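Sat 14:20. Reprocessing the chain from the morning session after the first attempt stalled halfway. Input below, unchanged.
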Amino acid sequence: MRFLVAGLNYRTATTELLERVSVSASALPDLLLRLQKQLGETLVLSTCNRTEVYTTGEDSPEGGGVARARLMQTLGEMAGLDEDELARVAYVYEGDDAVRHAIRVTCGLDSMVVGEHQIAGQVQTALRTAGEAGAVDAPLSRLFHFALRSSRRIREATGIGRNRITISSIGVQLIERAIGALKNRRVLLVGAGETGKLAARTLGHMGAGRLTVAGRSAERTARIAEELGGDWVLRSDLVPAIANADVVISATASSETIITAEMVREAISESGRSSLVMLDLAMPRDIDPAVGDLPGVILYGLPDLQAIADEHRADRADAAAEAEALIDREIPRFNESLTALATEPVIRALGAHAEQIRLRELETGLRRLQGLTDEQRAVIESLTKSVVSKILADPITFLRTRDDDESASAVARLFGLPEIEVEPEIEAAEALEGDDG
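Finished this time. C-alpha cells:
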C-alpha cells in the first residue's frame, strides 16, 4: 500500500487561491463521495492554512504513477488550475514522505504557528467526516489514528506546543501592536466557532472591555456570548454593532463575504469615529479586502500574522528539531503496524489453530503417561509450547514482512485455516488503534 497526499498551503499559494480550494464542512461529505469514485479511499483536510487530499495507491511504479496523476488532476480541478499552474503551487508526497507529512501536519510542525493545538482537532474531524461518508478504508484510518497518537507523544516529549499559542492569539498580538493597550476597547466577534472564541478569550485576558458576539442563530449566539461574558446581536444588525466597536474579529465558516466595504463605511459614518481595527481569521475571508482601503481602517488577515508566527517559530526551533527526529523514528513503527493490518487476522488464526493441535496432542500423550508429577507435566507442557512457537516463528515472520493479501491467503491455505477476511473494515482498524477522541 502506498500513501499519497497533494495540497496547497499558506507557503505555496496565495490567499485568493487558498480561498478557491477551501472546502466548507457542509460541502465536504459530497466532495468526499465524488473523490472516492475518482481516487478510491480519500480524506480531505481543509483548514485556514491548507487544503490537502490524501489517498492510497498500489506499490508498483505503474500503480503509484496512475494514482499520483489522478490525485493531481483532482486537486487541479478543485483549484481551477491547469497542469502547469498547479505544478507551481502544489506539493505532492508519496510513500514514507506522505506518512511523514501527515504526522508533521498533525503535530503542528507544518502550521503557520509551530505546534499549535487546533490542527489535531481538525485532523480528527476530517477523519471522522471521511469515515461517516464511507470514503476511507483501514489504511488511511490507521495512518491518521497513528498520526494523532504520535502528535500526543511528541508534544509530551518536546516543548513544541508550550504556552498553547494559536493563530487567534498571535492575531490578538498583532492588534495590540497596532493600537496599544487593549484595556476598555470594545470588541465585536463575528462567528462563534473555536477560532473566534479563542481570540475573544485572549482579548479578555489582555484586559479588553465589552465583548459583543454576532451570529446567525439567536439561541447559539446567546449561549456563546454568555460563555464568553459578553452580549450578542444577530448578523442582520452588523452595521450598528461595528459602529459600536473598536476592534472587529471575524472567524466564520461562511463561503461568502460577511462584511463589505459599504457596511464598514456606513458604520464609521454612524459612529463618528475615525479609526477601526479589523482582524479576519476566516478561510475563505469574511471581510472584503477593499475594507482595508477605507480611511482610518486597519485590516489584518491571515497572511499578516506571518511575522509574529516567525518569531514564535524561532523560539521553538530546538523543540521543532527534536520533534522532527522523533517523527523519523515513528515512521518505521507505523510501517510495522500497517503490515500487520492484512496479515494479523491470519497470524491470530494460525496461532489458535496450532494451540488447538498442541492441546489435543498433549492431552492424548499425558493420558498414556501415568504417574507424572506436577513438575514433570509442567516440563512437558512447556516443551510443547516451545516446539509450536519455533515452528510458527518462520511463517509469522514471513507474514509480518509482507503487506499483501496474497501472502496472507497463501499461508492460510498452506495450514488449512478457515477462510479469513484479510482486509478488515475501518471499524476493526480503529478498534485495534484505540480511541483518539
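The chain has 17 helices and ten strands.
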